[in-house]
Amino acid sequence: MCAKIALAVFLIVVATASAANLPDKYYGTFDLSHSENFDEYMTAKGYGWFTRKLVTFATFKKVFTRTGSKNLFDYSNLTSKKDVHYKNIELGKAFQGEGLDSTKHEVCFSIITFTLKDGHLFEHHKPLEGGDAKEETYEYLFDGDLLLVRMSFNGVEGRRFYKRIE
Ligand SMILES: *[C@@H]1O[C@H](CO)[C@@H](O)[C@H](O)[C@H]1NC(C)=O
User: Fold this and answer.
1) Residue 123: CB within 6 Å of ligand 1?
2) Considering the domain boundaries, does residue 56 fall inside one?
3) Does ligand 1 have an atom closer than 6 angstroms to the CB of 77?
4) Nearest of 142, 124, 84, 130 to residue 104 by alpha carbon
5) Contact 149/157 with Cβ under 8 angstroms?
6) Does 85 reside within a domain?
7) CA 97 to chain CA mean position, Å
8) Whole domain around residue 42: which residue ranges?
9) For residue 120, what is the domain's CATH number?
10) 85: Cβ–Cβ under 8 A, 6 or more apart, which residues?
């Protein structure tokens, strides 16, 4: 009886774990195509005019790469300001990584967790104590062939669309 329950629990855990792999469609290199309401979003975050203009001229790429293991992936956020690489990410498992201070736009460390819900990928950043950065969640989903990244601050949503280049 006990053994049966244990086995059932084990199978459920295995089923859940194997369901939580990054879907194939996310793998690749994506280049920024266009944005919607992004200037408004940055304004809500308190970025000044000069920073917003700099961001307008910056280049942005997102790269999701396979690793040797099916449940681990690498992610890179490549920009002309700074490249950030996260290695061996496991969905649902928090790790410490570089993030950007949302108010001063400086590099700081955050606890980062990627999760998957209804086929959408979520990247949650919780800044470590000390800074005045705020928690932030980026949502990744597909809009046709484009990778859509949604982010919001104080109810102002910015959307950025990325085109697959590899
Ligand atoms: C990617 O980097 C840019 C600037 O280098 C930053 O503003 C943005 O928040 C980062 N995006 C994610 C999803 O981490």
Assistant:
1) yes
2) yes
3) yes
4) 130
5) no
6) yes
7) 12
8) 24-164
9) 2.40.128.20
10) 74, 75, 76
63, 79, 121, 160: which to mutate for ligand 1, most atoms within 8 A of CB? 79
And the tokens for 105?
């736009």
Instruction: Confirm whether 74 is domain-assigned.
Output: yes
96-124: pLDDT as tens digits: 998 765 555 566 789 999 999 999 999 99
Q: Is 79 in the pocket of ligand 1 (CB under 6 A)?
A: yes
Check: CB of residue 99 under 8 Å from CB of residue 127: yes
> Model-level pTM?
0.84
Is there an atom of ligand 1 within 6 Å of 110 CB? no
Rounded CA gap, 105 and 62, in Å?
19
pLDDT, tens only, 22-79: 999 999 999 999 999 999 999 999 999 999 999 988 999 999 999 999 999 999 999 9
Residue 9, domain member (yes or no): no
Strands (E), the chain: 28-36, 60-66, 72-79, 83-90, 95-100, 107-117, 120-127, 136-143, 146-153, 156-164
> Considering only CA atoms, which residue is closest to atom 1 of ligand 1?
77
Is the C-beta atom of 100 inside 6 A of ligand 1? yes
Say how many domains are in the chain: 1
Number of residues assigned to the chain: 166
